[in-house]
Amino acid sequence: MTGPAIRADYVSANRGRVRDSYILICPENLVENSLPHLRGVNAQPLATPRALPARFGEYLLDFEPGAGTTRPIGAGFENFLYVLEGELRVRAADDGYPIKAGGYLFLPQGVEFEVDAAGTARALWVKRRYEAVDGVAAPEIVAGHVDEVEHIPDETIGGTYAPLLPLDERYDMAMNVMRFDLGARFTMVEVHHQEHGLYMLEGQGVYYLGEDHVEVAAGDFVYMAPYCPQYFYATGSANAAYLLYKDINRDGF
Ligand code: UGY
Ligand code: MN
Q: Domains in the chain: how many in total?
């Protein structure tokens, strides 16, 4: 006897979770949201300082055709944009940056930006306050595309990582695309003082977070607080990939 399929609107089908050391938000958990000076953009917060101890913001931006900023935004923060679908046109520091899917732009604190989309587009926006250090130079604007970045094998994750930003000490944040062949797995459980914002780009897997095993799939977002034990293995029938924010090169004070 076969019963009816489990409906996504059944409460028991919810996968979203809030725990002491992590938060999982799935596409079906997202609620429409708007932000000042972004017209025609559904700007859904994934992480903000309201979530556990997060020191950064990460937002999923859905642009209607012709949508965009009504004035420059991003003042007082360093900002990072990664295009998931469609194309964005960004203007910053007297330059224009057309960004297609897989493309990205990092703007150091002090550089505001305007953005619009001719067609529908989807992007991630990460922002945080820059932690300046005496004797360390300020970071510079970085524009690129994930396909032009070297994918470096990393035994500890059983996959590869592509650093979208330079990893030197001018930068206090890393944005890495991590790729995993089907069946790949970490070779250690990480516990570290840095926090993560993880957006699943492709495939699926099981994430060990805190003391839980949690299934994750493309479109899911995970916030990992400092010291959250973490371990990933790729499951399903295709390779997996995620975009990972990490605070780096600073001592935690
Ligand atoms: O660099 C990292 O901390 C990374 N390996 N963590 C992760 O993918 N959860
Ligand atoms: Mn980690």
A: 1
From 24, 154, 246, 247, the mutation candidate for ligand 1 (largest count of ligand atoms within 8 A of CB) is: 246
Say yes or no to pLDDT of 117 above 80: yes
Sequence letter at residue 37: H
Q: Which atom of ligand 1 is nearest to the CA of 231?
A: 9
Residue 92: both structure tokens together: 């910053």
Question: For residue 187, what is the domain's CATH number?
Answer: 2.60.120.10
Q: How far is the CA of 191 from the centre of ligand 1 (A)?
A: 9
Q: Give me 210's structure tokens.
A: 């805190």
Domain that holds residue 159: 17-247
**Distance (Å, whole) CA 100 – CA 166:** 21
28 φ/ψ angles, rounded to the nearest 5 degrees: -75, -10
Looking at this protein, which amino acid is placed at residue 136?
A: V
**Tokens 């609620």, located at residue:** 31
Amino acid at 227: Y
Ligand closest to CA 244:
1
User: Atom 2 (ligand 1): residue with closest C-alpha?
Assistant: 246
Q: What is the pLDDT of residues 192-209, one digit of tens each?
A: 999 999 999 999 999 999
Residue 210 domain flag: yes
pTM above 0.90, yes or no: yes
